[in-house]
Amino acid sequence: MTPQPVPALQTGDVAPNGALPDGTPLLALRGRPVILAFAPSTWNPAQAYQSEIFARLLREFGDDALTNAAPEFWHALDCRGELAAQLGAAGQRALLLLDEEGILRWKTIVEPGQELRAGQVLAALEALRPAPTTPPNTTAAVDTEAATGGMSRRTFVLATLAAAALLALPSVVTAAPADISARPIPTENRAAMLPIELNINGEKHRLELDPRTALLDALRGNLHLTGTKKGCDHGQCGACTVHLDGHSALSCLTLAVMAQGKAITTIEGLAKGDTLHPMQAAFIKHDAFQCGYCTPGQIMSATALLADPHTRHGSAVEIREAMSGNLCRCAAYPNIIAAIEEAQRA
Amino acid sequence: MHPFQYQRAENNGQAVAAVAKNPEAAFIAGGTSQVDLLKEGVHKPNLLVDVAGLPLRQITDFEGGVRIGANATNTEAAYFPAIQARYPAVSEALLAGASVQIRNMATMAGNPLQRTRCPYFRDPDQPCNKRTPGSGCAAIGGYNHVHALFGASEACVATHPSDLAVALAALDARVQTTGPQGSRTIAFTDLHRLPGTTPHLDTTLAHGELITSIDLPAFAGRSHYLKVRERASYAYALASCAVALEMDGPKIKRARIALGGVAHKPWRTPAAEALLAGQRPTEKLFQATAAAAFADAKPLEHNAYKIPMGRNLLVRALLETSGLQPLAGPAGTAFAASVGGMAGQVATPN
Questions:
Q1: Which residues form the FAD-binding PCMH-type domain (chain B) (predicted)?
Q2: ipTM, two decimals
Q3: Chains A and B: how many Cβ contacts under 8 Å?
Q4: Which of B165, B180, B222, B301 counts the highest number of beta carbons within 10 A?
Q5: CATH number of the domain residue B15 falls in
């Protein structure tokens, strides 16, 4: 099937009738405002987390009319689906707000590689204010349009909440890390949450996690142990290397639920108080990094290499081979090998 | 990622029952290949039954050979003394594959069950009969430089990516399984199948059939694995071969050859193997053997280079295994298995 090009829907236009994935026609949603959020259907922990915060804000801070029917206002949809094509959002991350009449009131398309920025959201909200006001704002990074005037309070509140949810994300995380860490990484199509206990750097952590959660995402997203880095997320770069029972392993390809019962060591677990692990010290001494993003993974592989009797006494060539699962795009390789050789001699 | 339930298997029987009764269920152990496919949206089980905790990790002497528990990691098997000494092709194939981290995670049963690295299989936006039966094959008219020379079909030209599987095929390993129909032994060469009209099926295992061990039969000969790839390390084979030679004085008593990176399964070459039986090893003989091994190759648009590459690789592997030429590194290590030297190592002249 070849998708037909669809002229982009303009704000102020009545949205063409399409159907939600469950078959509900858009026409049946008339009478209340609706937010359609399009994104790739691939489950992504960060995106799922954002969606959950949207939904929570709608539930917890909306007025009664909104609270009672919150789930019906918010539709997370696949940008590869039919509806996305009909509304001109095919393949894009986009937020569309339709009012009670089915008229497009707000459209935000986030271009690939860009994130929604506070300024754009504020501008859009300003434009949405019920009284006639400023013309829409557009930028190269985020294409935001909003129709002005004539909008009901209810629609405006909904839009405000959705936008506030986006903006609130960082402050929520920094304000209450302890609280957030105990919460699951939420999902769009929620699988049964599992109680999970992880032993990390000698400390036990209890979490409720979706079974899809990779150990890497649990470390970074739930426990805020951000020393372990996400590079490729597909086992090709080694940035996420941790130790499982003393052996190097990729946390991006390890389901958190399967890491239970194992001693997990991350880069945060190497130093003893203020005293760096000898490998960390050697990396600093030999300037074994440039940007530093791959460094935690390099150090975790290097420490495992020296703990392993099969590779401990390896030559420089053998060290290179044993380190081949850790890529460094700054190409600090000669210094990395020098650092490992020094730690090897120590 | 498609949502799934997770269950930790308590014993073999319970694991088999849990998967057998649910057509959308799958086993998981090391997860290195599977979690990646889950993230890609290629693999969509609704239930994962975790067999990593089952007591299937022992490597033991068995009937004059070695029995490798399904859950032994690739690292554990590669460095197991009896394997490294008596079946160096297995250690070489393992250590020349993937990275340390992945070898530490991947299991011996999981490695041969990894899915193809055909890029079209891994992209849900492309047609692929292996991923979505009936959707077509994007590789046949696409960029097919890593695809098959042998045994392909109009439905699929993918190759099997495992190095280990090539060594196990040459050594006539056997696979022990337990499944809904009971336990059985499968010749390793019968574990994988050709694509035919059903390329979505990689193996002859029934749904819910669990590998419990891989057995290396008694073997008193020499074995060796040799691999050529696009990088010096941490890359799949463009072409590879495993050779097992049993000698009778100066003559070859029996030879077994398996080619990797050229078919939907490790590709045994009976006609080429027969040329070696009873013969004294010479370079000329090995060239004739390699010619026979690739005589039936059917290249696609972009992979004809694999024919001379594979022939030369096989000649070199035979020279090295028979002792006419030294190995590029210590037997049973990645250095013996690598063509062109490892990163930072001066290549052995050849």
A1: 1-221
A2: 0.96
A3: 111
A4: B165
A5: 3.30.43.10
